[in-house]
Q: What sequence folds into this?
């Protein structure tokens, strides 16, 4: 079994709950309130700025030049490609860049991005990979699942098609292959550290969608 397969096995229950979450269900059956989707997209745009910074840190720590270039490219693509997707939504909603980027980070978003950046800065490269991998991988799996179900709402289909696309799949496969290569040199204790981060950020993925569905902001 590949190390990444064992990682996925460790979050089967979490992933099952993600697929059953009303935010994800609502994308497929088009019942999700557009206000909730808008809240999520704005927060996701804010999240991706820090995610890209974290990828740049991972690249700087990478022991192989090919991984340095991979994460540097992904950091750039996160800003350019995914921001283009978000910007298409913002145009629909008549939101300016100032409207979006002056929005405060919601608590779950701050929790998630702070965790990613702390691991990227403080922990070894292999642990950083474990923390960042769920954002890549879970979005791909969710995209594929939602593509099977379909959605009657164009704005939701646009989001689904991005993460179900072969272009996005090729990016995820690069990271999975790198993770398996890194794992060959790790001790059992080091692999367990990777797994711990992987599980935590998978839970944070669930909380991010829950945040969007409930439009959770600061209560004080």
A:
């Amino acid at each position: 079994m590949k190390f990444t397969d064992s990682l996925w096995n460790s979050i089967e229950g979490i992933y099952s709950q993600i697929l059953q979450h009303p935010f994800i269900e609502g994308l497929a059956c088009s019942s999700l309130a557009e206000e909730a989707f808008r809240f999520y997209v704005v927060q996701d745009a804010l999240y991706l700025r820090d995610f890209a910074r974290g990828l740049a840190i991972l690249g700087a720590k990478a022991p192989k030049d090919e991984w340095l270039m991979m994460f540097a490219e992904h950091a750039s693509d996160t800003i350019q490609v995914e921001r283009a997707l978000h910007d298409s939504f913002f145009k629909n909603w008549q939101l300016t860049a100032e409207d979006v980027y002056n929005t405060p980070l919601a608590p779950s978003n701050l929790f998630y991005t702070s965790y990613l950046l702390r691991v990227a800065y403080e922990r070894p490269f292999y642990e950083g990979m474990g923390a960042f991998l769920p954002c890549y991988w879970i979005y791909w799996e969710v995209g594929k699942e939602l593509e099977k179900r379909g959605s009657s709402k164009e704005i939701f289909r646009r989001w689904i098609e991005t993460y179900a696309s072969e272009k996005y799949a090729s990016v995820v496969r690069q990271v999975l292959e790198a993770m398996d290569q890194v794992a060959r040199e790790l001790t059992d204790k080091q692999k367990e550290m990777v797994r711990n981060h992987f599980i935590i950020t998978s839970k944070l993925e669930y909380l991010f969608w829950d945040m969007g569905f409930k439009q959770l902001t600061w209560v004080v």
Summary: Residues 120 and 128 are 5 Å apart (CA to CA).
